[in-house]
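Changelog-adjacent note: as of this version, every example in the card shows the full chain rather than a window. The one below runs 288 residues end to end.
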Amino acid sequence: MGTEIERSVAVANLEMQASELEMLIAMYPGDKELHLSNPALLQDIQEFLDGSVLRIPSVEFTINLQMDNGSIVETMIKLPSDYPLTSLPEVYIRSESLKRPDQSRLNKDLQTALKDDSLPQEPCVLFIVDWLQSNATQYLTSTSKDSTTSETDSNSVINSGMFSRLWIYSHHIYSKIKRKNMLDLSKEYCLSGFVLPGKPGIICIEGDSKNTGDWWAIVRNWQWKRLSLKIQQDEKTGDIDGQRKFDGFQEIGEVKGNTREYHMDMGAFQVYLNNHGFGDLFGELFSI
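Full-length structure tokens:
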């Protein structure tokens, strides 16, 4: 009985997701406007609805919205399997015309609007599009010169005199959108470290304290089942790069097949930590 109820809920959610996708495809017919992470997504959804496959398809796509001032706003969206009946979409906005603080503020304000103003248990991607078309220009720089300056500023190395390394535990990390956004943000904030996807998921981020704090302020406001800062290591220094233990920010491990069945190789992760001088943190990360 429980399994039948779970499937009926999943079907109800996916039927609404499929209808919303079909509407978006009609609104944005060009691949440069709407890009599906899986070109066969609608077919995969239909196969699940028909009962020919049991795995719930992952619904991820990007909408490139052109604003009145000519700027392109890249809107990356993932629809969780329980959307829209019990959850909101995962969404992240970025643009070459957004300065770093404004991009952070825009994403935070959009999340607030989604929680406060969208209709409960109703599809809300069009709400996101309407909100951006009405509000995004106030966050955007108006000229290409400003955009170039923003890019230069966002990639400059800040030295606040304090180095920080954050160790973050997540119930799970599957979303390709989250993983891609973490990689992009780490470059933007000149940070190094790693993300280990799967269940559970681990993130380590290191660099200038101000940058790690700004990065964490953005990432923790995304939708997570459970996300917690387990360990914070701080060091006063005039040489931020000299304190780093990781080269760049990368994804380690591998998500295989059906991501919902993936579990990380604990032994391999222990070796990875040992190789970087953090083997003693393994028990603390997993509260062993």
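Structural remarks: The mean pLDDT is 87.
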